[in-house]
Amino acid sequence: MHHHGYAWLGEKKTFDKESLRRPPGQAPTATSTQDVLDRYRDAVSEFPTSTVPPLQTAHWLMKPASMVRGTWEEPNKAGDWLGLQLAEFAPRFTTVAEREVTRLAVLVKASVERLMWGGDVSLGHYLTGTVFHSVALVTCSPNRVSPDLPCPTR
User: Is the pTM of this model over 0.85?
Assistant: First the structure.
């Protein structure tokens, strides 16, 4: 078991566009409505290469290996990376409470504990302006939620 790190920074309106964040699913049928056909077509063309975080954290494993920001065998090392991500962007978090150092340390500690039993971690923060920052740690080989998803780096 190992853990992959993913990060995304972008406009909130892009993050809110669910069609970018959902895998295609089952193909529509001949009797499907036009909006179902359009959503499927969008998902097929956009989801695999979109850097926008997927709705389900495990679905990061469906993305190309180039989107992996780091891979760690040890949960503590993955936690170190997460801590650096949070520290880098904390000054831009929209609320003072979110920037609080103790809160961030607790988030990292809880994330490491989750990784130790094979869970995934997904955190997101609004930054000043209209920007959203997302960071995720996904357990791989196997993933607890989606054990059938292959490792993107192998």
Answer: yes
